[in-house]
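We emphasize that the prediction below concerns an isolated chain of 282 residues; any contacts that depend on oligomerization or on bound cofactors are therefore not represented. The input was used exactly as deposited, without trimming of termini.
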Amino acid sequence: MMNPFLSIKEYLSFLLVGLLVSDISAHTDTKLKFENGEVIGLPPDFRPAKFDVTQKKLTIANKELILPEILHSLFHYPKKGQEELDPFNDDIPPLMTLNEVSFQASWYHGPSILPPYMVIKIKLDDQKEGHRIEILIDLVEVTIIEATAYFDLGRRAVGLPIKLIEDTDPFDLKTDHTKTPITGKWTNYRMALEITETQLILIDTPDPQLNISGKIEHIKPSEFILIKRDDTQEKVFYNRSKDILYLGFSGGDSEFVLSGSPTDQLYRRLNQFHNQPEPTKK
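Result of the prediction step, given as a token string:
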């Protein structure tokens, strides 16, 4: 269960580690093709997708993002013999070679507080695969979630966050839980529940033994007491971010989307696209 004393940003850092490091997680991002400035392989909601290496400009479905200048130089490295040239001396511009840039994405890990995302990977060293920069992009808002520098230490890679000047810390949420209701019908496409001001009702589940229905009491910011139908009590932790609701039970955590909301409709389209069979090759 999520530690109730963790901030949402700290919680998301654990999510990101689990999602982005493929060797410790079952989740796998989809590799995208990058040809002639076009990023190929995203669902229709995120098309057209383009990346202009010269301007460092990403375009997703007609929304544009120009990467912060602090990241610009990471796309290039000096050619051999030019390493000592002063990059700030315009009279002697160094000869630069483009680093290898690749793209991957996930739009099928939700509903989740972590939105559908793209990762721009910049390879920094031909000799060490783990030396890289990863820029995590929110595909819906087309904003940077975070940028991380990874260094290959042999058996593992260590990631260090890059502080961006324009970083607005999008996950440093100042949610007033007393004014953010969690009432409504919620789903994660495996089970559905309804929350009223006094009840949590499990509507649909593949597990008939799941016991999370009951009366809600002592609701506080980020937690409430659930009195189940067998009279047992459980403290449940929660956090709502727009149309996404996190619930932390003693038996595990779940994230839900508000049924019928624009975010629900988006995830249904994305999941349908992801589950389409691959076209047969002739």
